[in-house]
Prior knowledge:
By secondary structure, this protein is mainly alpha-helical. The protein has helices at 2-7, 24-42, 62-83, 91-121, 130-145, 153-171. Helix 3 packs antiparallel against helix 4, helix 4 (91-121) packs antiparallel against helix 5 (130-145) and helix 5 crosses helix 6 (153-171).
Amino acid sequence: VIVHWGWSPNGWLITRDYKDFAGSGVVHLTGGTIALMGAIVVGARKFRWLKEYEDRFRPNNKPLAAFGTIVLWFGWYGFNCGSTLSALDDSPKTIVRVAVNTTLGSASGGVTALFIYWFRNRKEDEQFDVLFVCNGILAGVVGVTSSCNNIETWAAVLIGIIAAFVYTFYSW
């Protein structure tokens, strides 16, 4: 139903000039909404928020998580740039714009998350968390994906920054 709305020539969103680059609305918004509803219905894991079980729920392999972020970030270029191949306009220019905006959005999300974490924890022992930066990168790339074919570079940076703040707010 949702795919028909967003991608079919007769879909009610398409008939209202809806643009869905790389499936951001149809795929990602739908999947994220379903995941959120599932998490609300299932609820938190047993003992998740009890102080005495705090160590059970800490990430235990940060290098592997960072490597996974790099692999995902690299694959995102194929995803975003590959999505321009279906557009029959000025494809080489669009591919370059998409690649640059993908880089700027994700990098600005990661750097912003780094500064937010540092600012919040600067008086404590742990002033840096690689997983927080990794999630900032992913927030930035997710935030910029839907519009990376139509925006200027400054907007990609701004979207990455906003995405890092949104991630930070909901994470804490």
